[in-house]
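Suppose a colleague, Dr. K., hands you the sequence of a protein chain of 169 amino acids and asks what its three-dimensional shape might be. Before reaching for any lab equipment, you can write down a predicted structure in C-alpha coordinate form. Begin with the sequence itself:
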Amino acid sequence: MRLAPNDEDIRHNLQLANLAVVDKIPSLPELFYIRAFRQFRDRFTLSTLFILVICLYLICIGTLIIRILTKRNRARQLALFVITVCGIPLLFFSGILISKIHHLHCHVEAIIMTEKVDARSAPSSDGTELFVLHEGVKVHIVNRTGEWVEIKLADGKKGWLPKEVLEVI
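The predicted structure, expressed as C-alpha coordinates, is then:
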Protein backbone atom coordinates (compact mmCIF):
# COMPACT_ATOMS: atom_id res chain seq x y z
CA MET A 1 0.00 0.00 0.00
CA ARG A 2 2.98 2.30 0.43
CA LEU A 3 3.93 2.19 -3.23
CA ALA A 4 0.44 2.33 -4.73
CA PRO A 5 -2.06 3.51 -2.12
CA ASN A 6 -4.96 3.74 -4.59
CA ASP A 7 -4.53 0.30 -6.21
CA GLU A 8 -7.76 -1.65 -5.66
CA ASP A 9 -6.15 -5.01 -6.56
CA ILE A 10 -3.53 -4.60 -3.84
CA ARG A 11 -6.21 -3.55 -1.35
CA HIS A 12 -8.31 -6.63 -2.25
CA ASN A 13 -5.32 -9.00 -1.94
CA LEU A 14 -4.44 -7.47 1.43
CA GLN A 15 -8.00 -8.02 2.67
CA LEU A 16 -7.82 -11.67 1.56
CA ALA A 17 -4.48 -12.13 3.33
CA ASN A 18 -5.87 -10.58 6.51
CA LEU A 19 -8.68 -13.15 6.54
CA ALA A 20 -6.07 -15.90 6.98
CA VAL A 21 -4.47 -14.25 10.04
CA VAL A 22 -5.23 -16.20 13.24
CA ASP A 23 -4.77 -13.31 15.71
CA LYS A 24 -7.39 -10.60 15.29
CA ILE A 25 -5.84 -7.64 17.10
CA PRO A 26 -8.17 -4.65 17.40
CA SER A 27 -6.73 -1.19 16.83
CA LEU A 28 -6.82 1.44 19.53
CA PRO A 29 -9.56 4.00 18.90
CA GLU A 30 -8.31 7.16 17.25
CA LEU A 31 -9.75 10.64 17.16
CA PHE A 32 -11.78 11.25 14.00
CA TYR A 33 -9.62 14.14 12.78
CA ILE A 34 -6.40 12.12 13.21
CA ARG A 35 -7.96 9.23 11.28
CA ALA A 36 -9.17 11.65 8.57
CA PHE A 37 -5.69 13.21 8.30
CA ARG A 38 -4.01 9.80 7.97
CA GLN A 39 -6.51 8.64 5.36
CA PHE A 40 -6.01 11.85 3.37
CA ARG A 41 -2.20 11.60 3.64
CA ASP A 42 -2.19 7.96 2.62
CA ARG A 43 -4.23 8.64 -0.54
CA PHE A 44 -1.14 10.23 -2.13
CA THR A 45 2.13 8.63 -3.09
CA LEU A 46 5.32 10.37 -2.04
CA SER A 47 6.15 11.27 -5.64
CA THR A 48 2.68 12.74 -6.24
CA LEU A 49 2.98 14.97 -3.19
CA PHE A 50 6.52 15.98 -4.15
CA ILE A 51 5.49 16.96 -7.70
CA LEU A 52 2.45 18.87 -6.41
CA VAL A 53 4.52 20.84 -3.88
CA ILE A 54 7.23 21.62 -6.46
CA CYS A 55 4.65 22.85 -9.00
CA LEU A 56 2.91 25.07 -6.45
CA TYR A 57 6.29 26.39 -5.29
CA LEU A 58 7.37 27.23 -8.85
CA ILE A 59 4.06 28.99 -9.55
CA CYS A 60 4.46 31.05 -6.37
CA ILE A 61 8.09 31.95 -7.13
CA GLY A 62 7.33 32.78 -10.78
CA THR A 63 4.40 34.95 -9.79
CA LEU A 64 6.48 36.65 -7.09
CA ILE A 65 9.14 37.51 -9.68
CA ILE A 66 6.45 38.92 -11.97
CA ARG A 67 5.07 40.96 -9.06
CA ILE A 68 8.51 42.37 -8.26
CA LEU A 69 9.41 43.19 -11.88
CA THR A 70 6.14 44.65 -13.10
CA LYS A 71 5.14 48.25 -12.58
CA ARG A 72 1.46 47.98 -13.49
CA ASN A 73 -0.76 48.05 -10.45
CA ARG A 74 -3.39 45.68 -11.89
CA ALA A 75 -0.75 43.03 -12.71
CA ARG A 76 0.74 43.37 -9.21
CA GLN A 77 -2.68 42.82 -7.63
CA LEU A 78 -3.34 39.79 -9.82
CA ALA A 79 0.10 38.39 -8.93
CA LEU A 80 -0.63 38.85 -5.23
CA PHE A 81 -3.93 37.01 -5.68
CA VAL A 82 -2.20 34.11 -7.49
CA ILE A 83 0.49 33.93 -4.79
CA THR A 84 -2.21 33.75 -2.12
CA VAL A 85 -4.31 31.19 -3.99
CA CYS A 86 -1.26 28.96 -4.61
CA GLY A 87 0.53 29.72 -1.35
CA ILE A 88 -2.15 28.37 0.96
CA PRO A 89 -2.30 24.94 -0.76
CA LEU A 90 1.52 25.02 -0.94
CA LEU A 91 1.74 25.30 2.85
CA PHE A 92 -0.97 22.67 3.34
CA PHE A 93 0.55 20.09 0.97
CA SER A 94 4.07 20.83 2.26
CA GLY A 95 2.83 19.80 5.70
CA ILE A 96 1.27 16.65 4.23
CA LEU A 97 4.54 15.89 2.39
CA ILE A 98 6.60 16.30 5.58
CA SER A 99 4.17 14.04 7.45
CA LYS A 100 4.35 11.43 4.67
CA ILE A 101 8.18 11.45 4.66
CA HIS A 102 8.24 11.12 8.46
CA HIS A 103 5.73 8.27 8.34
CA LEU A 104 7.64 6.36 5.66
CA HIS A 105 11.03 6.70 7.36
CA CYS A 106 10.10 6.41 11.04
CA HIS A 107 7.12 4.04 10.97
CA VAL A 108 8.60 0.60 10.28
CA GLU A 109 6.20 -2.33 10.07
CA ALA A 110 6.83 -6.05 9.87
CA ILE A 111 4.91 -9.31 9.50
CA ILE A 112 5.35 -12.37 11.72
CA MET A 113 6.67 -15.13 9.45
CA THR A 114 6.79 -18.10 11.84
CA GLU A 115 3.77 -20.19 12.78
CA LYS A 116 3.91 -19.17 16.45
CA VAL A 117 6.20 -16.94 18.51
CA ASP A 118 6.25 -15.80 22.13
CA ALA A 119 6.67 -12.09 22.80
CA ARG A 120 9.03 -11.51 25.72
CA SER A 121 9.36 -8.75 28.31
CA ALA A 122 13.09 -8.33 27.63
CA PRO A 123 15.40 -8.84 24.64
CA SER A 124 16.43 -12.36 25.66
CA SER A 125 14.91 -15.82 25.82
CA ASP A 126 14.97 -15.49 29.62
CA GLY A 127 12.38 -12.68 29.55
CA THR A 128 8.85 -13.32 30.75
CA GLU A 129 6.44 -14.52 28.09
CA LEU A 130 3.89 -11.72 27.61
CA PHE A 131 1.72 -12.98 24.77
CA VAL A 132 1.75 -15.33 21.79
CA LEU A 133 1.60 -14.20 18.16
CA HIS A 134 0.90 -16.26 15.06
CA GLU A 135 1.96 -16.03 11.44
CA GLY A 136 0.65 -13.05 9.47
CA VAL A 137 0.27 -10.53 12.30
CA LYS A 138 1.41 -7.03 11.44
CA VAL A 139 3.56 -5.30 14.08
CA HIS A 140 5.27 -1.94 14.41
CA ILE A 141 9.00 -2.04 15.08
CA VAL A 142 9.85 0.28 17.96
CA ASN A 143 13.48 -0.61 18.74
CA ARG A 144 16.24 -3.01 17.73
CA THR A 145 18.86 -4.51 20.03
CA GLY A 146 21.22 -7.11 18.60
CA GLU A 147 19.18 -10.10 17.50
CA TRP A 148 16.00 -8.83 19.17
CA VAL A 149 13.33 -6.38 18.04
CA GLU A 150 10.89 -4.50 20.27
CA ILE A 151 7.45 -4.49 18.69
CA LYS A 152 4.15 -2.76 19.32
CA LEU A 153 0.80 -4.21 18.34
CA ALA A 154 -2.20 -2.27 17.05
CA ASP A 155 -3.83 -2.59 20.48
CA GLY A 156 -0.83 -0.98 22.21
CA LYS A 157 0.83 -4.11 23.66
CA LYS A 158 4.63 -4.17 23.49
CA GLY A 159 7.09 -7.03 23.57
CA TRP A 160 10.40 -8.34 22.27
CA LEU A 161 10.76 -10.86 19.43
CA PRO A 162 13.79 -12.48 17.80
CA LYS A 163 14.40 -10.58 14.57
CA GLU A 164 14.51 -13.74 12.44
CA VAL A 165 10.76 -14.30 12.96
CA LEU A 166 9.90 -10.97 11.28
CA GLU A 167 9.92 -9.71 7.72
CA VAL A 168 10.02 -5.92 7.38
CA ILE A 169 7.48 -4.52 4.92
